Amino acid sequence: MKTVNPATEETEFEVDLHTPQEVEARLKLAQEAHETLRAMSFSERAVLMMAAADIIEAEVEATAIILTREMGKPISQSRGEVLKCAKNMRFYAAKSEEFLAPQKLADPSQVGASSAMGIWQPLGVVLAVMPWNFPLWQVIRFAAPALMAGNSGVLKHASNVPQTALYLDDLFTRAGFPKGAFSTLMISASSVAAVIDDWRIRAVTLTGSEPAGRAVAAQAGGQIKPSVMELGGSDAFIVTSNADVEAAAAIAVTARINNNGQSCVAGKRFLVFADVYDQFLESFVAKMKALKMGDPLDETTQLGPLATKNGKRDIIELVEDAKSKGARILCGGETPEGPGYFYPATVIDQLTDDMKLVMEEAFGPVASVYRVANKEEAIKIANQTTFGLSSAIWSQDASEQDYFIEHLAAGAVFVNGMTVSYPELAFGGIKDSGFGRELSDAGIKEFCNLKTVWKA
Question: What is the distance between the alpha carbons of residues 120 and 375, in angstroms, rounded to a whole number?
Answer without folding.
Answer: 43
